[in-house]
């Protein structure tokens, strides 16, 4: 009987413990290990409300029907997008992040559970090797033997049959002794007869002598001594050399402009201009070239364009036929991009023009507070001038008829506007059209295409912007058969070029060039800072402040900015004399471009990004060895190599193109067309294949 209260208390205690165990005090923190899986299921018992409040960028979290909140037990799928967290160096074997889940219990108690997620990276290895280059003649069967290398000889080494003969040869006192063997006395007599002075005889070993004779005397001595019975052998005293490989001559350094905003002009180094400008300083860019920029006109009063433009008196032209285009008049010889009350838009034509011909160094004073040096243009010291043709009004509009007139005029064909006929006194060899429109049917574009084809026949190569809507719709006039459609690239986190999302992509795209990330959604991979803030990966060039009516420098992005990059390289090819007309200029640009995306030509990049250094045959200005991994989705990695060329990259799932080579134009890209490179290797990584070795990547000069 005394035990019953104890049993009752025990029953009550056990019941209470069971109730506490059914409802945890809060969602617990926990570790979630994905290992090499792409995703995993995570569940926790719960009887209150919960909501996922924070998820790292490289993770995706979803519940039933994609929900990230609910009541009752927590059931979530955690998926890793490893590429979003893989650093450019690809040197992290494991990724780590924290998911936060806010919870509210039945008693309205609140808290936050933190789930630490780890994901093992996949592993790609390889080794970079270099095949040495061998200089010499072709020694295939049937070919003549290579000539023997020239040797330097310092006299003869004579070895006698006995020590007595050697002593007699070098010692006059000994050779006179009658007790010496006859052959010893003969050894001395032979040298005396040859006229070898005692000072030219040096004992080398017990039986050898060095004779310091040369030329004909050495040849005669070798012949006579070889027949002497006292002599065992006669050999030339050949000069030897240290076996250290001669140090390769250091490449010239790239030219780095000092203008104030030049450090933000990342497009030029990416295209190898540091080498081109070094080449230009050595001379050779002597032929004058005119680049016609048919655009919104230009500001002649911008100090960074002073002396780089054909003036109204020298053939510049405004072809706009209406009087509501911003300057209040019709066609005339003044293509100034006009200023008028209330105008706020930038000068598109001035921006495009500066990419090609902006001056280097000190400018004439432009305004109080204006940059004294500004930006640089691609043409540097080359005699390249821009012929401004105003074909876009102040709102950036034009029509097909006005474009036809601009193209014809640039090519030196007569055009009649408002009853007056104009013919360019300085016809262009290169035409830039950073304009166009979508929704134009091929038949509607035909007048423009005919004009561009006629210009090609007259020696004008036309480059046109591929369009900025990010679609696969052809954009005219870029899609005209005789035009060269140019798409835009921007930078990856690795500093390599990739397709700009806004750039149109279609079959007629032939080349690509840097055009910037996007003013609306910029990236900041170029590393520049201005006013303490990151500078966007867009294109900075000459502009005009219409509010203050003074020169300035403007950031823009688009295929409008990519197109003059290509036009500038074409002009330099003609100026240096590498090419002489449209056909060979275009062929050279295509052949030397840097292939991007899928191997070969594609609708995003055309044949590739224009490489100025390769096109112009510029000298090497760097000699870095490296390897790049590209997943074809805009993610590029630069794993480090050890002293033996080995590398290990920790990556996410996907297919990778692996390419090794040397960077000789200081643009950070290894193994471009003109540089030593390996054949690319392919690799695929996944949970089923978490490791792959691509073997040796042999770089061939």
From TrEMBL:
GO molecular function terms noted in the UniProt entry: serine-type endopeptidase activity
Compositionally biased residues, Low complexity: 678-692
Membrane-spanning ranges: none
One Gene Ontology term from the biological process aspect of the record: proteolysis
Active-site residues, Swiss-Prot/TrEMBL: 295 (charge relay system), 348 (charge relay system), 560 (charge relay system)
Alphabetical keyword list: Hydrolase, Protease, Serine protease
InterPro entries noted in UniProt: Peptidase_S8/S53_dom (IPR000209), Peptidase_S8/S53_dom_sf (IPR036852), Peptidase_S8_His-AS (IPR022398), Peptidase_S8_Ser-AS (IPR023828), Peptidase_S8_subtilisin-like (IPR050131), Peptidase_S8_subtilisin-rel (IPR015500)
Keyword Transmembrane: no
Ranges where the record places region Disordered: 130-150, 320-348, 663-701
Biased composition (Acidic residues): 326-335
Chain ranges of the Peptidase S8/S53 domain: 288-608
Family indicated by similarity: Belongs to the peptidase S8 family.
UniProt-recorded name of the protein: Serine protease
